Amino acid sequence: MRCQVFPPTTLGGVEPLILGLESTCDETGAALVRGTELLADVVASSMDEHARFGGIVPEVASRAHLEAFVPTVEEALSRAGASLSDIDGIAVASGPGLVGSLTVGVAAAKALALALDKPLYGVNHVIGHAAVDELVHGPMPERTMALVVSGGHTSLLLVNDIATDVVELGHTLDDAAGEAFDKVGRLLNLPYPGGPHVDRLAREGNPEAIPFPRALTSAKAMQTHAYDFSFSGLKTAVARWIEAREESGQEIPVADVAASFAAAVADVLVEKTIAACRANDVDTLVIGGGFSANSQLRELAAERCEQAGIDVRIPPIRYCTDNGAMIAALGSAVARRGVAPSELSIGVDSSMPLGTITV
Ligand code: KG4
Ligand code: ZN
């Protein structure tokens, strides 16, 4: 159904003020961006409500978005010293993510677009994790590699143009990097989410103590899955190793387990990313997503990219976890490029393909 179609935003000297809305998982985010300048960024999280369940409960997340949405938008406007009537366009993450959570944000964004008579841009959340870097380090070079790593995603994107041309080179075939850390955290009896705890423990251990597998790196696997990842077998290898130690009554050297596991994850992520940069003649790498907080990944990426002559950009961690700024940043790039806005009949796409920037 065709409801309302707006012409592309024209710059007219002043760049459009974009409201970015994020509600793909457990964070409700609202942010205002003009050009590549971030004017306000407010995030409400329902993580505390999920912790006791050991994972995100979609129903709980959806309800939390419903409650947090209006206060979050009002707070963002107030911090930017702006009012609703100043907004030139509304960008909303319409996928990938949890259907219920996405629906709350997209429905709210449509209501705002309709009430304000402003263009709506349904954008890809994962590409937002790369786009947010423009708010920190300025416009991306024409060809940039983006490694987006979080609890839900592990994807390698070739960004030819953040507003119009993104190619997914590879992704995880099973667990995301953060998810694998959370599962290993559970094996080591650490609180949920285990990722940051495993990271902390790993810093005290020997990364070479246990030779955990590096999946999809054999010559044969590289023929078909050069830029794909797999962490589920690694997590199982860690579980088996712990079980064997327990059965023989030996103590578990938790720091060494954490360090060896973390080294295996970082090694595969960094090696495949550098190979993708080389194969595509790219010398700028953006790392985004909540897992980019991981120290083992940061250290290894810095070290090996320097050797390879690749410039690594990692936004500050508050822009790497889910937030409205990343959606506003992508919406701003899209609006400035004159990409046609979305129709008000758009739905949500929980598994939106990563080559899709706007819907
Ligand atoms: O992007 P994000 O905030 O949330 C979603 O995936 O939606 O990423 C969170 C994920 C969780 O799995 C968390 O355990 C993991 O990233 N994580 C870490 C670290 N910080 C967050 N994993 C390892 N080391 C860290 N320092
Ligand atoms: Zn995310």
What's the SSE pattern?
EEEHHEHEHHEEEHHHHHEHEHH
Report the CATH superfamily of the largest domain: ATPase, nucleotide binding domain
CATH architecture of the largest domain: 2-Layer Sandwich
**CATH topological fold name of the largest domain:** Nucleotidyltransferase, domain 5
Distance between the termini: 14 Å
Which structural class do you get from the secondary structure elements? alpha/beta
Rg over alpha carbons: 21 Å
User: Helicity level, as a percent range?
Assistant: 40-55%
Global morphology:
globular
Structure, explained:
With 359 residues, the protein is α/β, with parallel strands linked by helices. It folds into two domains: 131 residues, Nucleotidyltransferase, domain 5 (2-Layer Sandwich), CATH 3.30.420; 180 residues, 2-Layer Sandwich (Nucleotidyltransferase, domain 5), CATH 3.30.420. 44% of the residues lie in helices and 18% in strands. The protein has a five-stranded mixed beta sheet, sandwiched between helices. Strands 8-7-6-9-10 form a five-stranded mixed beta sheet, sandwiched between helices. A hairpin with a 2-residue loop joins strand 2 and strand 3. Helix 2 packs parallel to helix 3. The longest helix has 26 residues. It is globular. The relative contact order is 0.20. The N terminus is likely disordered. Bound molecules: 5'-O-[(R)-(carboxyoxy)(hydroxy)phosphoryl]adenosine and zinc ion. Zinc ion (ZN) binds next to helix 4.
